[in-house]
Amino acid sequence: MPLPAFGAVNVGSSSSLSYSFVFTFDTGGVGVSGAVLTLGQTGLDFGGFSNCFADTNYNPGESCNISVGFGPTLPGVRYGAATLSNASGAPIATGYVLGTGLGPQVNFSPGTESTLGSSFSLPHNVAVDGVGNVFVADSNNNAVKEIPAGGGTPITLGSGFSYPSGVVVDGKGHVFVADYGNNAVRELDFFDPPSLTFASTPVGSTSSDSPQTVTVTNVGNEPAVFIFYLWDSFPYVPTNFAVDTSGETACPLKSTWSEVSHQWSLPQSTSCLMPISFQPTTVGSLTGSLVLTHLAPESGGDYAFTQSISLSGIGIQTRATPTVTFTGAPASAAYGSTFNVAATTNASTSAVITGTPGICSVAGNTVTMTSGTGTCSLSANWAADSNYTSAAAGQSTVSMKAGSSTAITSNTPGTSSPGQAVLVSFQVTANGLPSGSVTVIARTGENCVGTLNSSVGGCSLSFATVGSRTLRASYTGDPNFNGSTSPAVTQSVIGPLASVSPSSIDFGTVYLGTITTKNVTVTNLGNAPMTITGPLLSIVKGGNSNEFIAVNACPKSLAAGRSCTISLEFVAGPFYNPQTAALSVVDNAPGSPQTVTLTATVINPQAQLSATSLNFDKQKVNTSSASKAVTLTNTGATTLTTISIAIAGINHLDFLETNNCPSSLTAKSTCTINVTFKPTATGSRSASIVITDNAQNSPQSISLSGTGN
Q1: Same topology for domains 5-102 and 123-188, yes or no?
Q2: What is the pLDDT at residue 672?
Q3: How far apart are CA 698 and CA 605, in angstroms?
Q4: Is it the case that residue 471 has pLDDT exceeding 70?
Q5: Is the pTM of this model over 0.70?
Q6: Share of the chain above pLDDT 90, in %
Q7: Which residues pair with 307 in a beta bridge?
């Protein structure tokens, strides 16, 4: 159905038309009131008269009328409403109208730009109500704010918004918000009076949440006139509730109070406060309404309508403080242990006892320690009854680790041979199931670690030496149990144990055809005879098996603690690369066969001189003879090394030597030694050239002789 429309009317004029809204009551009603609104406000473009009176009792089927006229104040489409409200001020029926204002509206350029408010962050949307109040969706600040008409500090409305992105205002001034981050649309109703609920309060006392303050604000564009009577207070306050009317900002405003006209007023854009308290005088659920009565501006003072604030609270009987005791908790208790506590009171209720989760548990009056660390904080709580208030008491117990007992249950086999694995089984006994690891340690230093599974476990270890030794199992403990060490058990290790020394033999660098002897000592370090099958020789690299010879002086059975010798000979053959072999001693001891590494290097350098003597003719003193040459040849198969040439003898200063011999001379290579005679005196003179090297016949020499005249 289309809205009743006044059509186009000049701004400043009034339409000759009027619309009458008839409101028919389905049920009886009293205390109703009518009003004509423009965008939620009175006294603007739409006005009229209502014969729906608050003091009239309407029966079902009876009607009342609200007539609406239109006098535009601004050009453009204007929206209005005729609203019928109940005694509490809540609308029960609404009829809507519209009209268009015709007329100029002069703008100026350049215009005036001003910033409204401050501290906004990403304002997303604005709306304006009928009197010019501006509403802003302040998105990044998660708030909706109102900028009062004419400017001023923004007022934050509501709470709990998450990135509000849109805001609109309806004809009654209700603010609707698109609460984007909460996926909701929310309504802020500042037109309808609130409902206040107070905490339950003993009779004769004031509630703990009193006062709850209601702010009354005139957001219209003319003063709000309220009525009071000498025999009533303002506002009308029901029994069990109270309003503090003292102070300059309290309602009613004393500056506007008139006992002659029984009225007071609240100027436009002004607020007053009503601090409301709950003070029950009887037991039970108590309700009431705080009623404000004010004149309807359209009536010219002929009729009034009311708005009511619903109030509720529960009056309870004044209770005494009970006498309570809570005892029985020891200063400390071990994990897994239990103790009983006692809670008494002179009230009719029983205590509910609780403990610290994870530290202790409570079943009735019995407390069980469920942790080996921390503090068990116990609390006894008594609910209130008709005569006594609720009460609580507490005590605490420090949790301690429980003891444990560790034992080796078996070591298999109890008598082992060297190197044989021995499985050691253990068990940790306690008031509960210990967790963690156990270390088995032998007196001789061997050890192994095993993990507990349902208080038992095991691990394996072996022994390199023979003899008897003790084993102990050591439990390290866990958050609930202390550690412990088992009694000692005996482990015997019986058998031969071979020691071969040295573990390697280097025959060194030897000359072709030589024989070198070395000895290997075999010792039975065990406590049982050792059977020696025999030494074996194997060539690893270079040479052949005929070069290494083993002479075994060991018996077939070597008694415990005894030693024997294996002699090894290396016969240097014509194999000039480094040679490696292995001696394996085969026996019945762990680690058999025991191996000795054998290495040797064969060389065969041969230093041969083309002459072993040089004789010079007579030579005048201090003059030099012609030089004579001797050739040094390496006739061997390996390099002649560390060659050193020098002149020695009584007259070594009378002979001079030069050569082109390097420090090393490869096989079949030669070099030359040149000698001159320069006597320093007359007579027979002699010396020799000494050549040292790595040849087997080193040093070699050349005899020198001559006569000085």
Answers
A1: no
A2: 97
A3: 10
A4: yes
A5: no
A6: 55
A7: 292
List the end-to-end C-alpha distance of the chain, in Å, as a whole number. 161
CATH T-level topology, domain 498-603: Immunoglobulin-like (2.60.40)
Q: Which class does domain 195-316 fall in?
A: mainly beta
Q: CATH fold of 123-188, please?
A: Thrombin, subunit H (2.40.10)
Whether the Cβ atoms of residue 350 and residue 382 lie closer than 8 Å to each other: yes
DSSP label of 140: G
Q: Which CATH class is domain 607-708?
A: mainly beta
Structure tokens at 414: 């109890």
Q: Which amino acid is at 122?
A: L
**CA 671/CA 660 separation, integer angstroms:** 6
| Residue with the two structure tokens 């969706």 | 137
Three-class DSSP category at 31: coil
- The confidence band for 191, taking pLDDT boundaries of 50, 70 and 90, is low
Q: Where are the alpha helices (DSSP H) in 475-560?
A: none
Tokens coding 276? 């409301």
**What is the C-alpha to C-alpha distance for residues 463 and 465, in angstroms, rounded to an integer?**
6
* Phi, psi for residue 180 in degrees, rounded to 5: -55, -50
Residue 254, helix vs strand vs coil: helix
pLDDT in tens, 516-542: 999 999 999 999 999 998 787 766 666
**What is the topology classification, in CATH, of domain 5-102?**
Immunoglobulin-like (2.60.40)
Which has the minimum average pLDDT: 60-74, 188-202, 415-429, 476-490? Answer: 188-202
Domain ranges of the chain: 5-102, 123-188, 195-316, 324-400, 415-491, 498-603, 607-708
Exposure b/e, 196-225, CB count within 10 A at least 16 = b? bebeebeeeeebeebbbebebebbbbebbb
With cut-offs at 50, 70 and 90, classify the pLDDT of residue 481: very high
Q: What is the DSSP track for 621-669?
A: TT-PPPPEEEEEEE-SSS-B-S-EEEEESTTGGGEEEEE---S-B-TT-
User: Token digits for 62?
Assistant: 């009876």
Strand partners, 272: 216
* pLDDT of 75: 82
Say if domain 324-400 classifies as CATH 2.60.40.
Answer: yes
Cβ(328)–Cβ(366) below 8 Å: no
